[in-house]
Amino acid sequence: INEQKEDNRNDNLSISSINTPSIFNFKLVRSFKLLNAFTGHSNIVWSIDYSTFDGDQFIYSGSGDKTVRVWDVDNNKQIQSFGHSSFVLCVKFSLYRYYNHSRNVICSSSYDNIIRFWDINYNQLSQVFNGHTGGVIGIEFSSFNSGRYLCSGSFDKTVRLWDVEISKSLYVFNGHEDIVWCIDMSPLQSNNNNNDNKINDIGVIGGSGYTICSGSFDRIIRIWDIETNKQLIIFKGHEAYVNSVKYGSNELLNTVLSGSYDKSVRLWDIRSGQQIQFFNGHTDRVCAVEYSPFVANNIKVGSSSSVICSGSLDNTIRFWDIRSNKNELYVIEGDKEDNGIFCLKFISLKKKENNNGNTNNDIHNLNLCYGSSQGPIRILEISKN
Question: Where would one find the signal peptide in this protein (predicted)?
């Protein structure tokens, strides 16, 4: 436990480590222009992640072709590939390994029931989590303790919580009646009394108040309390499989966003346990949902964005104003080769050159990266007026 308390001092690192795009007015968006396309996967790209280290920028991807791939953004090429024995369904960069062990490690989950950790520096497998008795779909690292904890959802209908440092399964959450397809961990919570460290002393993990959200083929979204290992809330309303769930942050901390096979995007209030918004416009199943770095009409929800986005098998990415059930704000049509959007992520890439032709590492552009049904991964540059 003392070792875990030490980890809490690094919590801020988990917030600042990824280049989080700043919020700006959606009306200022002029276009979404293709910046890069990575080709090499021969099947669905189920998941993508992003990190920077040593001044370089990397995209990570997991695919139905059974591979995890590392892409060098600056040089526009694949630099590494790792293999599972079945479909790779999720990939995440491990901030804990980066900050606590100075290693660049990707975590991947697969239909082969296993979660693997790949050391990029040594180009080898460094850690394995066995425990699920079905394929492992979604994985997510904790926002607290610098990402020391990992949650996972599986075909075996369970959610698990793992300790990355000791390679141990801590809890198994039972309750879903079908495949747990998607998962998220609640964002970092601030301690209002900086002189009181009690919040970091409670329980095995020291994550008092933190929760896990899971979406299932049983059409239900469940919220689990990490401290007590119990179910807190259930959200019912989707008419088909739940494909994607995401927690909000800041003033939207008490909301959950979801996308489903029923073609809808929904927003839920954790405090009331009720659906608060319904977005209908996709013509095929919604595979991915995200809180975007945009605001609509220059109006924020507190200090948070008021715009969300969703990717679908209808080959579109759509933007919605969470304060309204009206039609979408904007639609991006995917390339014909994509044949469906399976995952998406907002990233902030450093600008390669300034007006003098020199590299400028201080200027970053907002970008939207997505993975497709047919294998291409595309990075769209968001141009502003």
Answer: none
